[in-house]
Amino acid sequence: MGPSCYLRPFYLAVKDYLSCPPAIDLGCGRGEWLEFLLDEACSPLGIDQDEEMLQSCRERSLPAQQGDGVAYLATLPDESQAVVSAFHVVEHLSFDQLRTVVSSALRVLKPGGLLIMETPNPENIVVATCNFWLDPTHLRPIPPQLLSFLPEYYGFVRTKILRLQESKELAANESPTLNDVLRGASPDYAVVAQKAAPNETLVLFDRAFNQEYGLSLNILAERYDGSISARATQAEARATQAEARATQAEARATQAEARATQAEARATALLNSTSSRFTTPLRCLGSVARGLRANPWKSGAKSLIQHAASYIRRRPWLKKASLTLLNWFPGLRSRLFRVVSGATMLPDQPPSGPVVVAHLTPYARQIYANLKTAIERHQKGNS
Predict the structure, then answer these.
(1) Could you report the per-residue pLDDT of 204-222, keeping only the tens digit for each?
(2) 81-87/158-164 β-pairing
(3) 3-state SS string over the chain?
(4) Which CATH number do you get for residue 51?
(5) Which domain holds residue 369?
(6) Which of 199, 215, 231 finishes a domain?
(7) Structural domains in the chain (count)
(8) Structural contact between residues 127 and 135, judged by C-beta atoms closer than 8 angstroms
(9) Has this prediction a pTM greater than 0.70?
(10) What is the pLDDT of residues 225-245, one digit of tens each?
């Protein structure tokens, strides 16, 4: 972006109160600024020491001459110029020469006239530490605050720092990278200073002076810090959510463990209860009854159940308890009734002869032994 773009608001304000304003451009180079001033119907003159640069101006019929800009400025009469400009000149001057340019410009400018100085911006860290020094004629980078202070010190009524040439994409980016911070600040800047004038003249420039320009290192650093802080906050939030989910999972595991403990306790209580001791043999009998149809030892198991029923019949307390328990298991009761050939579950007369268990399977003999043991244990408890 050339000076004609960002300086147009300032120069149009100059034209609002001056007709064909005269301007002097120190270090005019190839004459880009001179060409803009001619197109805007002003009366410019360029000064430069480099003959090759001046040749480019002459080829385009631009008003330029060879000479030392600082020395030429000192020869101009008071209040003779509307604009004094120096684009990428001040970084080639000693500090004393820079002070002379500023003080001389204040003298030769008309009331409300402008001093414009553009130079590399050392706020851009890559420019300050590397790019600036690629030109061996550069003496030192000048911070914006220093270059802005000098016109104020010598009596200009107001100054404005215009940061220039930054990336438009980066200017709109609220989350710059560290690399953006190092090299993304506006690589150039200009200081525009205005000489005192009546208020009706100064207000013509208010809009241009009140506008903000470019991208500073401070803004980039603040955006970078903000993005880092935002990412840290997001990471902390995710960690908090993960911790909450882990706590919930731990609570569910604790609840499940508690339920398992309760279930184990109920199972233990059931196994140790009187009803369990009585129903266990009955459940075993139910297993035998369910397997009779498929069991090759069907007749032996049937005989075992009949002897057990006869034994229970002879003991009223056990008969009553067995019937009560069987009422809780109607399926088992029906099977046992069928096993004893359709007779009552507890026949009045026991089968004759001793119980023969030798022909039973080991599983059937174990059932018989469990039932006999349970009955004997109960008898001992009541004796």
Answers:
(1) 999 999 999 999 999 999 9
(2) unpaired
(3) CCHHHHCHHHHHHHHHHCCCCEEEEECCCCCHHHHHHHHCCCEEEEEECCHHHHHHHHHCCCCEEECCHHHHHHHCCCCCEEEEEEECCHHHCCHHHHHHHHHHHHHHEEEEEEEEEEEECCCCHHHHHCHHHHCCCCCCCCCHHHHHHHHHHHCCCEEEEEEECCCHHHHCCCCCCHHHHHHCCCCEEEEEEECCCCHHHHHHHHHHHHCCCCCCHHHHHHHHHHHHHHHHHHHHHHHHHHHHHHHHHHHHHHHHHHHHHHHHHHHHHHHHCHHHHHHHHHHHHHHHHHHCCCCCCHHHHHHHHHHHHHHHHCCHHHHHHHHHHHHCCHHHHHHHHHHCCCCCCCCCCCCCCCCCCCCCCHHHHHHHHHHHHHHHHHHHHHC
(4) 3.40.50.150
(5) 274-382
(6) 215
(7) 2
(8) no
(9) no
(10) 998 888 888 888 888 888 888
204 and 285, same domain (yes or no): no
Query: In this model, does residue 56 exceed pLDDT 60?
Result: yes
Rounded distance between C-alpha atoms, residue 65 and residue 81, angstroms: 17
Residue 74 domain flag: yes
